[in-house]
Design a protein that fits this description.
Length: 248
C-alpha cells in the first residue's frame, strides 16, 4: 500500500503573530514553524500502517525551501521519502491542484491530509483534491482500518460519530482522534540521522490559478478592561449590563 501524507508548515500556536507591508503580509521573523497538528495525527497513523502492514509512506508539502526542516522532521518520524512542490501556497485551490498532480503521478492508494491547517483554517484542500481526482473522500476522520481494498472509518459528526465503509483509493481529512496524543512520535537521534539520507524530491508546480487573494490581515481587537462590581451593589451591576454591555 502506498500512502501519501500531506504536510502543512504552520506557525507554532505559541508564536506571537505580526504582519508587515501595511498588514498585507505575514511576518515570519521569530516565528517557530511545526508540522500542522492535524497532519501529525495522520502521519502517525500512516507510520502505524507502515509498521503493521508494510505500507510505503511519502510526505508532501507545497512551499519554498523554508519548509524543508518540517519535511525532514516527518522523515525523522518515519516517512520513507518526501516531496516538496516548489511553489508559494497562495490559496487552497492552488495547493489542491498541486497535490492532485502529485497523486496522479504517484499511484497512491491512500492520501491522508489534515481536515484543516491551523494557520488559515480553510478546511478546503482535502475535499478539493477528491473533487479534482474523483476519489472517495471521508472528512473529520477519527479512526481508520484497512483490509485489502476495503476501508472502515469513523468520522466525527454533530452529536456523535458515524461509521462508514469505503474502498481504496481514498482521501481522508484526519484530525485529533485518528491516533491518541500519547501515540504521537517524537524523532529520536537515530531517526534524525537517518532522515538526512532519505530522498527529498523537489518538483516544479503545474499551472494552477488561485481563486482567492488576500487583501489584508487584521488582529482581533484587544480585550477591554474588566470592571469589578461589589456583590452588594446590584443597581450598579444592572446599570452596567444595560447601558454599557447592552445585554439587558
Amino acid at each position: 500500500m502506498n500512502i501519501l501524507v500531506c504536510i502543512s508548515h504552520v506557525p507554532d500556536t505559541t508564536s506571537k503573530i505580526n504582519f508587515t507591508n501595511n498588514d498585507t503580509l505575514f511576518d515570519t521573523n521569530g516565528v517557530q514553524f511545526v508540522i500542522n497538528p492535524n497532519d501529525e495525527f495522520g502521519l502517525t497513523r500512516a507510520i502505524w500502517f507502515q509498521e503493521q502492514q508494510g505500507a510505503n509512506v511519502t510526505v508532501v508539502n507545497v512551499g519554498g525551501p523554508e519548509t524543508e526542516p518540517t519535511l525532514r522532521k516527518a522523515l525523522a518520524i518515519g516517512a520513507n521519502e518526501a516531496i516538496r512542490v516548489n511553489a508559494n501556497p497562495t490559496d487552497g485551490f492552488f495547493v489542491a491542484k498541486q497535490l492532485a498532480e502529485v497523486i496522479k503521478n504517484g499511484n497512491y492508494d491512500l492520501v491522508i491530509a489534515g481536515k484543516e491547517s491551523l494557520d488559515y483554517n480553510g478546511g478546503m484542500v482535502p475535499g478539493m483534491i477528491a473533487g479534482l481526482l474523483g476519489f472517495h473522500f471521508i472528512n473529520s476522520c477519527v479512526a481508520l482500518t484497512i483490509d485489502g481494498n476495503s476501508v472502515t472509518a469513523s468520522r466525527e459528526i454533530d452529536g456523535g460519530k458515524e461509521i462508514v465503509n469505503s474502498q481504496l483509493p481514498l482521501i481522508i481529512g484526519g484530525q485529533k482522534g485518528l491516533v491518541e496524543e500519547k501515540d504521537l512520535r517524537i524523532p529520536n537521534m537515530r531517526g534524525i540521522m537517518t532522515a538526512r539520507t532519505k530522498v527529498l524530491n523537489i518538483i516544479e508546480p503545474v499551472i494552477g490559478d488561485s481563486k482567492t487573494a488576500t487583501i489584508k490581515f487584521e488582529k482581533p481587537a484587544p480585550k477591554s478592561a474588566v470592571k469589578l462590581v461589589n456583590a452588594d451593589n446590584l443597581d450598579e451591576l444592572i446599570s452596567l449590563l444595560h447601558n454599557e454591555a447592552k445585554v439587558i
